[in-house]
């Protein structure tokens, strides 16, 4: 068997509407035309809608697609389960809604040959199709975060990231989200990305930020949404960034 080069890990929580749109067919169609060995690991985070049933039906005819059914724990935990199952040299995190289409991987692959262990997608500061409150929030979040940590990175929160598997295996267990054994209620995104990238930077891994296409295609309603969810997530993210900064000052990451 050919050694798997890319494992695509897709977290899933109540994504029934997105799955119906044909996003998995998009992923399969793109990867089927590649000349390297690949796999897709869909990591379900205890969905309460019919997501799992739709996925099982869709991937019956798809080779190299795997569905993990996990207890509910939030997006970081769904990603962690996916990493543990994946066997590729590199792992691509990609959101189910495909707001950043899987084809944007083409922009990243060349950087793996240039010695970069971590290649992250960037939506820039101006976010197309964002409601005004999210555009303002994204600008404030990015500005405050860059004052506190990782000033050289514009967008830490884009869900499209290509990371060498051994780096993920090494760093993921060190993240506060898992050490604190946090309990999730609903779709919890968190800012695990900030802590992960900070630790990776301190360890000397090479990080490349690549501008990718992004257009809001999320049709799901089961994750909760709108202004209330955004405010809750933003408060949580700011709190986590502050904890990362304080942990860094105390030398925990040293």
Search tags:
single chain, globular, Spore Coat Polysaccharide Biosynthesis Protein SpsA, Chain A, 254 residues, 41% helix, alpha/beta
In CATH terms, the superfamily is Spore Coat Polysaccharide Biosynthesis Protein SpsA, Chain A
**What quaternary form is this?**
single chain
Specify the CATH class.
Answer: Alpha Beta
% residues in beta strands? 15-25%
Structurally, the number of domains stands at 1
If classified by CATH, what would the architecture be? Answer: Alpha-Beta Complex
Tell me the distance between the termini: 40 Å
Number of helical segments with 4 or more residues: 10
CATH topology: Spore Coat Polysaccharide Biosynthesis Protein SpsA, Chain A
Q: What does the overall shape look like?
A: globular
Overall pLDDT, averaged?
90
- Residue ranges: pLDDT <50 for 5 or more in a row? none
Report the sheet with the most strands, covering strand number, pairing sense and barrel closure. Answer: 7 strands, mixed
Class by alpha and beta content:
alpha/beta
Count of distinct strands: 7
How are strands sequenced across the largest beta sheet?
Answer: 3-2-1-4-6-5-7
Radius of gyration: 17 Å
Write the element-wise H/E pattern from the N-terminal end onward.
EHHEHEHEHEHEHHHEH
């Amino acid at each position: 068997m050919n050694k798997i080069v890319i494992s695509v890990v897709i977290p899933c929580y109540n994504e029934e509407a997105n799955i119906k749109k044909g996003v998995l067919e998009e992923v399969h169609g793109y990867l089927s035309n590649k000349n390297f060995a690949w796999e897709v690991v869909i990591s379900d985070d205890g969905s309460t809608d019919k997501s799992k049933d739709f996925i099982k039906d869709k991937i019956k005819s798809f080779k190299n697609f795997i569905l993990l059914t996990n207890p509910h724990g939030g997006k970081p935990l769904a990603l962690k389960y996916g990493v543990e199952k994946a066997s590729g040299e590199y792992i691509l995190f990609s959101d189910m809604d495909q707001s950043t289409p899987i084809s944007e991987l083409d922009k990243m692959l060349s950087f793996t040959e240039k010695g970069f262990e971590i290649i992250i997608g960037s939506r820039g500061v101006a976010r197309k199709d964002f409601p005004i409150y999210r555009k303002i929030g994204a600008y404030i979040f990015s500005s405050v975060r860059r004052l506190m940590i990782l000033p050289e990175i514009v967008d830490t929160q884009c869900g499209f990231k290509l990371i060498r598997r051994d780096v993920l295996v090494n760093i993921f267990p060190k993240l506060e989200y898992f050490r604190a054994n946090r309990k999730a209620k609903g779709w919890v995104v968190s800012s695990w990305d900030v802590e992960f990238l900070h630790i990776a930077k301190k360890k000397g891994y090479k990080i490349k930020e690549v501008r990718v296409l992004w257009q809001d295609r999320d049709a799901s309603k089961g994750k909760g949404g709108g202004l209330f969810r955004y405010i809750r997530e933003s408060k949580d993210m700011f709190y986590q960034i502050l904890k990362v900064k304080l942990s860094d000052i105390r030398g925990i990451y040293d």
